[in-house]
Amino acid sequence: MIEPNTIYFVGSGPGDPELITLKAKKLLENADVVVYSGSLLNPKLLEFAKKDATLHDAALLDRTKIYEILRDSTKQGKLAIRFHDGDPALFSTIREQIDKLNLDGINCKVVPGITAILGAASSLNLELTLPGITQTLIITRAELRTPVPEGERISNLATHGATMAFYLSVHLIRNIVDELIKGGSYQTSTPAAVVYRATWEDEKIIVGTLGDIVDKVREAKITKTAIIIVGNVINPTSYEFSKVYDPQFTHGYRKADKSK
């Protein structure tokens, strides 16, 4: 149910319009005001908005203006949504907006969406946590204008040897590769992939290793709107089968078949 005096922060999914959730689509169809992430969001998704909805491209606005549009529209009894690419929980600005809106007596709700790393993984048919290789996925970004805590520098995170996914960083891929190798767990032979506009119609997939991925990405002229994935799950030489479906493994829903 759509609630009054409530602003919805809605995830649009990775790009393919068919991957938007039913709840997100319903909110978009009913919204009077939509503030959308124009620099990253597939414009075809806006076709779900009703014809008389007012659309605002957040790429052209600062945080104060975005806040004012959302606040004022809601105070006027309109349904306003902040329409994010992917999922609002990752690399967004929802915390600062929600805190301020709550102080104004406006309720806020977040509607999740499929984030880009999951869209990219689906395009590559990847299992990001593969038994016998890694059970960990690290999601991060390279440092440039936006700083990261000292302990979260790429070379530090790379020591785990887990699957790593980098958002908003493809333009810094050479620096990323250098830092990953510095961590000691990855080598130039470690598989790497870059997915440009994951699940979009013009998606591009580049697969290589840390030794050649920089040149491949440069040749493809990819400088933004791409996910970098690093780890042996991309091209595993071996892995273990899941224990959950092992016929000799007992769990809460099935007893082991000792005859096999």
User: Assembly type of the shown chains?
Assistant: single chain
Question: Helical element count?
Answer: 7
CATH topology of the largest domain: Methyltransferase, Cobalt-precorrin-4 Transmethylase, Domain 2
Strand pairing plus helix content: what structural class? alpha/beta
Give the overall pLDDT as a whole number.
Answer: 94
User: What form results from the Cα inertia axes?
Assistant: globular
Span of the ends, CA to CA: 50 Å
Radius of gyration: 21 Å
Main beta sheet:
5 strands, parallel
Biggest sheet: strand arrangement: 3-2-4-1-5
The low-pLDDT segments are: none
CATH class of the largest domain: Alpha Beta
Task: Give the SSE order as H and E letters.
Answer: EHEEHEHEHEHEHEEHE
Look at the structure and name the CATH superfamily of the largest domain: Tetrapyrrole methylase, C-terminal domain
What is the number of E strands? 10
Number of domains: 2
Helical percent range? 10-25%
Which architecture name of the largest domain does CATH use? 2-Layer Sandwich
**Proportion of strand residues:** 15-25%
Describe it for me?
The chain has seven helices and ten strands. It is globular. 35% of the residues are buried. It has two domains: 6-111, Cobalt-precorrin-4 Transmethylase, domain 1; 116-230, 2-Layer Sandwich (Methyltransferase, Cobalt-precorrin-4 Transmethylase, Domain 2), CATH 3.30.950. By secondary structure, the protein is α/β, with parallel strands linked by helices. Helix content is 24%, strand content 20%. The longest helix is centred in the N-terminal third of the chain and has 13 residues, at 63-75. It has helices spanning 22-30, 63-75, 94-103, 116-124, 154-157, 173-182, 213-219, and strands spanning 6-11, 33-36, 54-57, 80-84, 107-111, 137-141, 163-167, 191-196, 204-209, 226-230.
